[in-house]
Amino acid sequence: MSSATASVETSPRQDADASILKRLSLGIAGRLVIIVPYLWLLFFFLIPFVIVFKISLSQTAIAIPPYTPVMDFSDGISGFLAPFKELSFDSYIWLTQDALYFNAYVSSLVIAAISTVLALLVGYPIAYGMARAPASIRPTLLMLVILPFWTSFLIRVYAWIGILKPEGLLNQFLLSIGVIDDPLIIINTYKAIFIGIVYSYLPFMVLPLYSTLEKMDDSLIEAAKDLGCTPIGAFWKITFPLSLPGVIAGCLLVFIPAVGEFVIPDLLGGSRTLMIGKTLWKEFFSNRDWPVSSAVAVVLLMILILPIVYFQHVQARTQERGR
């Protein structure tokens, strides 16, 4: 009897210990889930940004690396901290004195904004059609959207050269059906840049829109129609406002990389195209002016952080309203 009583008495203790261990394991797992993204941002964003920012405060030098001062760890802490006294903002002052950089920033922002609007106009009907398609074929449509990612980005851009050049596939097709009499000059123009950016980043617009539209309750549209709303009116009053989170996410996913795009303007836009990505590449590789190119990159990052902060603010407000 005594042993049975002891076993009964110890079972609640064992349950308590087991629950404590379970809570500890869940707590550790929860902390790891939070810590891993922060470590990722630390090693792949914050530390590289600090290095680039430090180079932007240096001076150009004919050496390896081509800037001074360089951190020297051989002399301990004093050798590491001494070069900080020699840092300057000359590269940032140079950016304000040369109109080339200002024009490159403005041109990049304008091209990225126009490309984002075009991608939205093309991507919204695609995402809407996918969300309204039968559930059995939605995975196939989704696969077709991401299918271009299975091919190299550079190869896809080179393919557009063969399509858009004067003797390319597009002009040959239009000439054969009699739509035009002379080849269209599209390559090495801003039109080619818009086509290349919209084509390359269209999946980034379609996927957030599709995710948002797919979750929308169709009964809202039916209720609007029962109350006398036209299909177009129901779209603008119900569907589009509810899809705004997807619209904002898609626009950011297209706009941010399009601002710093280098490959598409260089291959499709020609040498006359002025964008900040090409300017940064020339400063880094052609002029080997690492401080100025780093300053260009830091300013570009500061410009792109603004829409990200705005998006997070909108998302936070949306979540508060949902609660």
TrEMBL record:
It is found in: Cell membrane. Keywords: Cell membrane, Membrane, Transmembrane, Transmembrane helix, Transport. It is a multi-pass membrane protein. Residues 105-311 form the ABC transmembrane type-1 domain. It comes from the Bacteria. GO terms for biological process: transmembrane transport. One of its GO terms (cellular component) is plasma membrane. The chain crosses the membrane at residues 32-53, 104-128, 140-161, 192-213, 234-259, 290-311. Belongs to the binding-protein-dependent transport system permease family. CysTW subfamily. This is Putrescine/spermidine ABC transporter permease.
